[in-house]
């Protein structure tokens, strides 16, 4: 995420995320998974979980942030999304899964170097993160089609920021990166591979002739005519279009290093390496729990953990942090009953203090505690309850960690039990009455999470009260 706008002025407030992608042969059950932390500023930015039905999708789109205006197709699909609770600055739908079982997450703020921006400047009235999901997800029937639609929009309208976007269906995962104002490139992730994408230009080696790459029509001539390639015998998009800065060393590279260290420990790398690979292979199958652990990471079990009393603590920007607003894993399972394919895993941040819920996406509405999040503090909303837990938990992580970990394990176990029972009920009836079963299960999981969250908060407040500095013991 890159820009937010207020009135007529661009307010450059960097919003930064972390993305993980998993091909179907790299996952534990044959699913494709695209996941992202949606991060914001230091203050909370409340999020909602909603289903956009075809009648709710606009036929004409007018950006809330600039003069971008365009007509939209007349046949939108239904889709899930996690927009901001306040729509004053636009929709910011973040990511979701449509009724054709195609998923999209947008966006991962990336980098474009000054040489590129001098040749293809940003477009003030172009499209950006606030718009992209709404303009693309309701109209695509495959991951590849998502790349093609977004690429066409980008070439026509331009963009005001640098972003990475991921698409998936049951078979394929694609990663798309914008280049300057109008150029772009995308690559299909190998089925047996995973990707970790922090806030930099991420795609490295790129074969213009491969079937698994797509790009703007003049990308090759743009590079050659302007002498942009620094490599003698390679076509590396990160080297051509990206950055290699001191900020990358502290802010971006360590996140990629930690994820690769966890999933591919046999490869020895350093946190500050500038050329950490884009495409990676894990020595074991990757589960949603692995992704959640990594997107909650604060470099635990290393010298860089902010919760440890070490010289190098806080040296690098961690993955799980106070700016996490929500995290989603968009999972498309290899099942034959369409209603069971799409799982929109969701948690409101900060991630070290929450747990994901595996919501079914093939529904027409979402549970109240996740759907109607207030823009202002409310103890009725899951978002705000997690914020309270995070504020208390962060004050003494060692004291509360076991309590929070137990909450997460018990909550996930109960939600998975509900989900598995519903899966079997629908499979046994070949999809009959699936709509009601899916809706009821989502409601039950949300109620369970709300109940367990309040119970956790109750325990934490009691423990914190006993540990207050403002106390005095007198035996009388």
Describe this structure as you would to a colleague.
The chain is of the alpha+beta class. It has one domain (8-376): Penicillin V Acylase, Chain A. The chain is 32% helix and 18% strand. It is built from 12 helices and 18 strands. The chain has helices at residues 114-119, 129-136, 143-157, 219-225, 237-241, 246-263, 288-295, 338-341, 368-371, 382-395, 397-428, 434-466, and strands spanning 4-6, 9-11, 18-22, 32-39, 50-52, 60-62, 69-71, 79-81, 95-97, 103-109, 163-168, 173-179, 183-188, 194-197, 213-215, 324-332, 342-348, 357-360. The strands form 5 sheets. A 6-stranded antiparallel sheet has the order 14-3-4-16-17-18. The chain has a 6-stranded antiparallel sheet with strand order 9-10-11-12-13-15, with helices on one face. A hairpin with a 2-residue loop joins strand 1 (4-6) and strand 2.
CATH class: Alpha Beta
Tell me the overall shape: globular
Using only CA atoms, what is the Rg?
22 Å
Percent helix: 25-40%
Please provide the count of β strands: 18
The sequence of SSEs as H and E is EEEEEEEEEEHHHEEEEEHHHHEHEEHHHH
* Main sheet: strand order: 14-3-4-16-17-18
Number of helices: 12
Largest sheet: number of strands, sense, barrel closure: 6 strands, antiparallel
Q: What CATH architecture label applies?
A: 4-Layer Sandwich
Strand content: 15-25%
CATH superfamily: Penicillin V Acylase, Chain A
- Low-pLDDT runs of 5+ residues are 1-14
CATH topology: Penicillin V Acylase, Chain A
Structural class: alpha+beta
Number of domains: 1
């Amino acid at each position: 995420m890159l820009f937010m706008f207020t009135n007529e002025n661009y307010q450059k407030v960097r919003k930064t995320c972390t993305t993980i992608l998993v091909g179907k042969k790299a996952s534990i059950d044959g699913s494709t998974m695209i996941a992202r932390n949606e991060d914001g500023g230091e203050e909370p930015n409340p999020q909602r979980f909603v289903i956009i039905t075809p009648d709710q999708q606009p036929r004409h789109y007018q950006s809330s942030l600039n003069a971008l205006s365009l007509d939209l197709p007349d046949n939108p699909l239904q889709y899930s999304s996690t927009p901001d609770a306040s729509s004053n600055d636009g929709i910011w739908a973040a990511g979701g899964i449509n009724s054709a079982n195609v998923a999209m997450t947008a966006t991962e703020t990336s980098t474009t170097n000054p040489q590129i921006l001098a040749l293809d400047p940003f477009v003030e009235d172009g499209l950006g993160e606030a718009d992209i999901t709404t303009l693309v997800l309701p109209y695509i029937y495959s991951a590849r089609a998502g790349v093609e639609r977004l690429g066409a929009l980008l070439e026509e309208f331009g963009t005001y920021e640098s972003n990475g976007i991921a698409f998936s269906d049951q078979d394929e995962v694609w990663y798309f990166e914008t280049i300057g104002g109008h150029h772009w490139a995308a690559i299909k992730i190998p089925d047996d591979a995973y990707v970790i994408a922090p806030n930099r230009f991420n795609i490295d080696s790129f074969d213009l002739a491969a079937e698994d790459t797509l790009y703007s029509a003049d990308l090759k001539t743009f590079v050659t005519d302007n002498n942009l390639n620094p490599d003698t015998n390679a076509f590396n998009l990160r080297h051509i279009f990206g950055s290699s800065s001191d900020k990358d060393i502290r802010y971006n590279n360590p996140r990629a290093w930690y994820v690769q260290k966890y999933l591919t420990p046999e490869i020895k790398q350093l946190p500050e390496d500038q050329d950490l690979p884009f495409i990676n292979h894990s020595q074991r199958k990757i589960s949603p729990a692995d992704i959640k652990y990594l997107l909650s990471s604060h470099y635990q079990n290393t010298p860089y953990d902010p919760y440890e009393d070490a010289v190098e603590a806080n040296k690098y920007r961690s993955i799980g942090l106070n700016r996490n607003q929500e995290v989603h894993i968009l999972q498309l399972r290899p099942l034959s009953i369409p209603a069971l394919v799409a799982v929109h895993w969701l948690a409101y941040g900060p991630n070290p203090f929450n747990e994901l819920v595996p919501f079914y996406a093939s529904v027409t509405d979402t549970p109240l505690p996740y759907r109607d999040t207030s823009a202002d503090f409310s103890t009725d909303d899951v978002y705000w309850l997690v914020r309270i837990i995070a504020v208390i938990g962060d004050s003494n992580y060692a004291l509360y960690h076991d309590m929070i970990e137990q909450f997460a394990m018990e909550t996930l176990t109960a939600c998975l039990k509900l989900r598995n029972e519903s899966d079997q009920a629908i499979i046994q009836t070949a999809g009959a009455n699936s709509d009601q079963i899916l809706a009821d299960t989502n409601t039950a999981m949300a109620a369970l999470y709300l109940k367990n969250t309040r119970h956790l908060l109750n325990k934490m407040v009691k423990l914190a009260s006993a540990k207050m500095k403002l106390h005095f013991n007198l035996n009388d």
